[in-house]
Write a structure and sequence with these properties.
Blueprint: E1 4-10, H1 14-19, H2 21-24, E2 33-39, H3 42-50, E3 56-60, H4 61-67, E4 71-73, E5 79-81, E6 87-90, H5 96-99, E7 104-106, H6 112-122, H7 125-128, E8 137-139, H8 145-150, E9 156-159, H9 163-166, E10 173-177, H10 178-185, E11 191-199, H11 204-223, H12 225-232, H13 241-251, H14 254-257, H15 260-276
Helix pairs in contact: 3-4, 11-12
């Protein structure tokens, strides 16, 4: 039987590796499809999505605002910050007003962390009279942000991925957890960070089949957690098994199996607020594979 090959882009991170364990090791039915796993950092995947290059891809929810014409959101594979999220860290504690005047190392301008930072800075603009698009920042690969702050290339770092669990080991302090802030200001909703999308060149019926395969992979990993975490350890930068398992638990959970209406509302609110404040070009109509 000839298999139809699809490109599947995701980050070389423990949570994504965990999600796609069943698929990568061919432990679940692929229903006539073969998946070519393409591992790249999220900023690169975001940029590739704007060009419509991959069949299926992990992207930042922020980036979805720029690719909604090409891609539909899959109902599973989400990374939601439920009471936690990207963090602003520094050598000493800074207030929001102080951070607004500092140089911030960010992991990419199309990341959801960057958009959350802009919304956070813009929350009380009268306090320091600063437009969220004019603050001082430098783009640094996410795994080099600690070094940039330690070396003084930036005063504050916006950290994602496992850095949220390891920043104290770097001698840094948390100035703000943007996931905590978002939940506090939005009825306890999770901060939408990442999702999986599928190109609209595939017919709706095909999208549904692929969606079910990806969901089955996530469920398989949750049902075989020990084996899936062991697989994910190869992508766990300087993390032992326990820390990797904790990190996976932050971003592969019930939100990952399905956004639910609360998750969808959080995305609508996140991108809606961004549009209202002029941070993205137009209001998004979310299109989910159902």
């Amino acid at each position: 039987m000839e298999h139809r090959t699809l490109t599947l882009g995701h980050s070389p991170d423990p949570d994504d590796a965990f999600m796609f364990y069943g698929l990568a090791k061919e432990l679940i039915p692929a229903r006539g499809f073969r998946f070519e796993h393409i591992l790249q950092d999220i900023q690169t995947l975001n940029e590739r999505a704007t060009r419509g290059e991959l069949d299926i891809s992990a992207i930042s929810i922020h980036a979805y605002a720029y690719v909604a014409d090409k891609y539909a959101l899959l109902p599973s594979g989400a990374s939601m910050g439920d009471g936690y999220g990207p963090m602003l860290v520094a050598k000493q504690k800074f207030s929001r007003e102080e951070i607004a005047t500092k140089k911030i190392a960010v992991p990419g301008t199309m990341t959801s962390a960057f958009l959350a930072l802009q919304l956070w800075l813009d929350e009380k603009p009268s306090t320091f009279n600063l437009q969220p698009s004019t603050f001082d920042y430098i783009v640094v690969p996410f795994d080099q942000i600690f070094a940039a702050v330690r070396a003084g290339k930036a005063d504050v770092g916006l950290i994602i991925h496992e850095g949220q669990l390891t920043f104290q080991n770097e001698g840094l302090v948390c100035c703000e957890d943007l996931g905590v802030w978002w939940g506090r200001e939005n009825d306890g909703l999770p901060l939408p960070l990442g999702g999986n999308v599928i190109h609209k060149r595939h017919a709706p019926a095909t999208r549904k089949i692929i969606s079910d395969i990806l969901t089955a992979s996530i469920q398989f990993s949750l049902d075989h957690r020990a084996e899936a975490v062991q697989h994910a350890l190869q992508y766990a930068r300087d993390m032992g098994r326990d820390l990797a398992d904790k990190f996976v638990g932050l971003y592969v959970n019930h939100w990952t199996l399905d956004y639910s209406e609360r998750g969808r509302e959080s995305i609508r609110r996140f991108l809606g607020r961004a549009h209202e404040r002029g941070l993205i070009p137009h209001r998004q109509e979310l299109e989910f594979v159902v």
